[in-house]
C-alpha cells in the first residue's frame, strides 16, 4: 500500500478505504504540520488543524478532482485555509481581550498621538497591499503569499503544493514584475512604500 501513488490512494479513500487514508496521513502529516505551524506558531493549535485537515479530506474526498491538480496541492490548500481562518479568529477574539489596556491607551491618547498615527498608517498600508495583491491572478497571489507572508522558500512551496519548482519560480517572477508595474503606476502606493 505504501508504494501506491497519491492518486491511487485518494481513489481508494473515495471508496472509504481506511488503510489508504492512513497511508496518506503517514505520508503527509508532518509536512502539513510544518505548513500549519509556520502560520499559527503554536504546536497544540497546529496539531488540531492537522487533524481537522485530514478529517476534511476523509469527509470531502469526493470533491477532489485530479484534472484540476495534484492531491498534495488540494490537501495543502485545505490546511492553509484552515490555518489562516484560525489565525484570523485568534487575532480577533483573544487579542481584543488581551489588549484592552492598549485599546484604552489609544482611545485616551491625544488625537495627534504618534501611536494613533502609526496604527492608521499600518492599516492604510495593509489595505494598499491587499489592493495590489488582488491585481495578481490566483496562482501568482498564492506564490507571493506563501513566499513573502508565510516565509516559505520556492523549494518548500513546490514540495508542499505539488507545483513544479520551475513553475513556482516563473509564477513568482511574473508576479513580482506585475507588482513592480502596479506600484510604479500608482504614486500613492509608491509613496507609501518609500515612507
Please explain how this structure is put together.
The protein has helices at residues 6-14, 18-40, 43-60, 71-98, 100-108, 114-133, 138-149, 154-161, 165-185, 187-194. It folds into two domains: 1-98, Rna Polymerase Sigma Factor, Chain: A (Orthogonal Bundle); 109-195, Arc Repressor Mutant, subunit A. Helix 1 (6-14) crosses helix 2 (18-40). The radius of gyration is 21 Å and the shape is globular. By secondary structure, the chain is mainly α.
Question: Keywords, please?
Answer:
mainly alpha; single chain; 195 residues; 0% strand; Arc Repressor Mutant, subunit A; Rna Polymerase Sigma Factor, Chain: A
Q: Give the DSSP E fraction (strand runs of 2 or more residues).
A: under 5%
What is the number of independent domains? 2
Calculate the mean pLDDT score and round it. 78
Within CATH, the superfamily of the largest domain carries the name RNA polymerase sigma factor, region 2, helix turn helix motif
One letter per element, helices H and strands E, the order comes to HHHHHHHHHH
Give the structural class: mainly alpha
CATH topology of the largest domain: Rna Polymerase Sigma Factor, Chain: A
CATH architectural type of the largest domain: Orthogonal Bundle
Q: How many strands in all?
A: 0
Helix residue percentage: over 70%
Amino acid at each position: 500500500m505504501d508504494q501506491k501513488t497519491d492518486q491511487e490512494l485518494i481513489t481508494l479513500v473515495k471508496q472509504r478505504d481506511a488503510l489508504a487514508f492512513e497511508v496518506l496521513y503517514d505520508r503527509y502529516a508532518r509536512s502539513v504540520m510544518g505548513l500549519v505551524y509556520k502560520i499559527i506558531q503554536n504546536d497544540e493549535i497546529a496539531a488540531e488543524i492537522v487533524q481537522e485537515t485530514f478529517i476534511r479530506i476523509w469527509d470531502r474526498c469526493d470533491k477532489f478532482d485530479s484534472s484540476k491538480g495534484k492531491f498534495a496541492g488540494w490537501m495543502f490548500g485545505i490546511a492553509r485555509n484552515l490555518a489562516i481562518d484560525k489565525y484570523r479568529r485568534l487575532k480577533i477574539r483573544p487579542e481584543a481581550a488581551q489588549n484592552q489596556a492598549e485599546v484604552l491607551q489609544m482611545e485616551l491618547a491625544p488625537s495627534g498621538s504618534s501611536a494613533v498615527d502609526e496604527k492608521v498608517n499600518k492599516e492604510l498600508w495593509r489595505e494598499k497591499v491587499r489592493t495590489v495583491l488582488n491585481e495578481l491572478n490566483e496562482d501568482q497571489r498564492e506564490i507571493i503569499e506563501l513566499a513573502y507572508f508565510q516565509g516559505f522558500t520556492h523549494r518548500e512551496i513546490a514540495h508542499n503544493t505539488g507545483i513544479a519548482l520551475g513553475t513556482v519560480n516563473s509564477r513568482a517572477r511574473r508576479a513580482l514584475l506585475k507588482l513592480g508595474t502596479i506600484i510604479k503606476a500608482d504614486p500613492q502606493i509608491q509613496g507609501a512604500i518609500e515612507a
